[in-house]
Design brief:
alpha/beta; Rossmann fold; seven-stranded mixed sheet; 10 helices; globular
Length: 266
């Protein structure tokens, strides 16, 4: 297993800027994010009594507010690398504090949180071992880290279609499930749950899919992505290639979603 090289993930400033720009449009197209976050929240053990919790990569604050409802008497904090998302989330409430920050360097004291919740955010972190190390540091004994992420195989239909057109990198890269397994096993946290479940969305056409990815701020952010305009001929070739995947429900976009629940020893 190798951790991502510096050149294989997007620059965090680009990620922050992209998601900041997407803040206003994000919730209107975030079907996957809501479904995954809801499933993750259901997996947080009922025994967890979180006096203090943190939503890492809170985005527009949809699950910040859900956490605020579940742990109504608690002190909640929401953190995101994108200031635009925080500006959108802050007025809607759900947490006591909304702060800009990075999952690899949490601006929190040691042993200060009972629950760390993070849905579809840590796939943007180049050093996931640092994310786990920070969780180990910030959690109180018995505290829980619940996170979801994306694995290799996500948007494989789009990746394969682009590969047939020009061979360039047009789709964001993600870690192997085995990487997550090894990193979690070495984290010092007890693994309560770690599994991958495919989640497919369907679209009437390729344009609908690419428009949604842009509205989410999750369009292609890879280093080495093609620059300049994508020519009409290449777009037509992409459409033609993607049509091979069409199903009765529409064109599929499959996400390989990782769900994980880890606990710090009490």
């Amino acid at each position: 297993m190798t951790e991502f090289s510096q050149g294989s993930l997007p620059d965090k400033r680009q990620v922050a800027a992209s998601f900041s720009r997407a803040a206003a449009s994000y919730d209107s197209v975030a079907e996957l994010q809501r479904a995954v976050g809801s499933r993750l929240l259901e997996q947080v053990p009922a025994s967890v009594v979180a006096a203090d919790w943190l939503d890492i990569g809170c985005g527009t604050g949809y699950f910040t507010r859900a956490l605020g409802e579940r742990f109504a008497a608690a002190s909640g904090m929401a953190l995101d690398i994108a200031e635009g998302m925080l500006q959108h989330a802050r007025p809607l409430g759900g947490a006591t504090h909304f702060i800009a920050g990075d999952a690899e360097r949490l601006p929190l004291r040691d042993a200060s949180r009972d629950l760390l919740f993070s849905s579809l955010a840590v796939q943007w972190c180049g050093d996931f071992a640092a994310v786990l190390s920070e969780a180990q540091r910030v959690l109180r004994p018995g505290g829980v880290l619940a996170f979801s992420s994306l694995c290799v195989g996500t948007l494989q239909e789009l990746r394969d279609s682009w590969q047939a057109v020009d061979g360039h990198v047009h789709v964001n890269r993600f870690r192997q499930f085995t990487d997550y397994q090894q990193l979690c096993a070495a984290s010092g946290l007890q693994v309560l749950n770690l599994q991958v479940q495919p989640h497919a969305l369907y679209y009437p056409d390729v344009r609908s899919l690419t428009h949604e990815l842009k509205a989410l701020g999750a369009h292609n952010l890879n280093p080495g992505r093609p620059g300049g305009l994508t020519g009409r001929a290449r777009i037509l070739a992409l459409i033609d290639a993607y049509e091979r995947f069409r199903q009765p429900q529409g064109l599929p976009a499959t996400y390989q979603v990782l769900y994980a629940v880890l606990q710090k020893e009490g």
